[in-house]
C-alpha cells in the first residue's frame, strides 16, 4: 500500500469544534481511527462530500494530522478539496459537518452537491 504524506501546498484545515467531534466519534468507535474525507460524483451539481472513520488509509491516500486528529484524503480529490475548512456546526436541532471550500463555483438548490471550475 502507498500512503503519501501531507505537503504544505495542499491545505485542508479542521476547526477546533470539528476536531473535538471527530475525536469523540473515534473514541466511541474504539479509538485508533482516521477521519476520511472524499468526494463522490453525485447530485445535480457534480460532487458530494463523504466521510467515514477508517482503520487504515487506502492506497493512494494522503494522511496528515490536524488539531490532534488523523485526516485521510484520496490524492485524486486534493485538487478539488485544497483550501477546504472542515467545521462542525449546529443549525436548529441538527449538528453536522460543514465544508467551506474556496473552489466551489456552484451548488444545487438543496445544498447536497456542488460544482467546481475545470482548473480545480
Give an account of the 3D structure.
- By secondary structure, this protein is mainly β.
- The chain has one domain (4-114): HesB-like domain (Hypothetical Protein Aq_1857, Chain: A, Sandwich), CATH 2.60.300.12.
- The protein has helices at residues 16-28, 78-81; strands spanning 4-5, 12-14, 34-42, 46-54, 61-66, 69-74, 84-91, 94-100, 104-107, 114-116.
- The strands form three sheets. The chain has a five-stranded mixed beta sheet with strand order 1-5-6-3-4. A three-stranded mixed beta sheet has the order 2-7-8.
- β9 and β10 (114-116) form a beta hairpin.
- The model has no long low-confidence stretch (mean pLDDT 87).
- Tertiary shape: globular
Domain count: 1
Helix-strand topology string? EEHEEEEHEEEE
Q: Biggest β-sheet, characterized?
A: 5 strands, mixed
Structural class: mainly beta
Low-confidence stretches: none
How far from one another are the termini?
26 Å
CATH superfamily: HesB-like domain
**CATH topology label:** Hypothetical Protein Aq_1857, Chain: A
> Mean of the pLDDT scores?
87
Helix content: 10-25%
The beta-strand count equals: 10
Helix segment tally: 2
Return the CATH class: Mainly Beta
Amino acid at each position: 500500500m502507498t500512503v503519501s504524506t501531507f505537503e504544505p501546498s495542499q491545505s485542508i484545515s479542521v476547526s477546533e469544534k470539528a476536531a473535538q467531534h471527530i475525536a469523540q466519534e473515534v473514541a466511541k468507535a474504539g479509538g485508533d481511527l482516521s477521519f476520511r474525507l472524499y468526494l463522490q460524483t453525485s447530485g445535480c451539481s457534480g460532487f458530494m462530500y463523504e466521510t467515514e472513520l477508517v482503520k487504515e488509509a487506502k492506497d493512494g491516500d494522503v494522511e496528515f494530522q490536524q488539531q490532534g486528529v488523523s485526516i485521510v484524503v484520496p490524492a485524486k480529490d486534493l485538487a478539488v478539496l485544497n483550501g477546504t475548512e472542515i467545521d462542525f456546526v449546529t443549525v436548529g436541532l441538527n449538528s453536522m459537518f460543514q465544508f467551506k471550500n474556496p473552489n466551489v463555483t456552484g451548488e444545487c438548490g438543496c445544498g447536497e452537491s456542488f460544482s467546481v471550475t475545470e482548473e480545480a
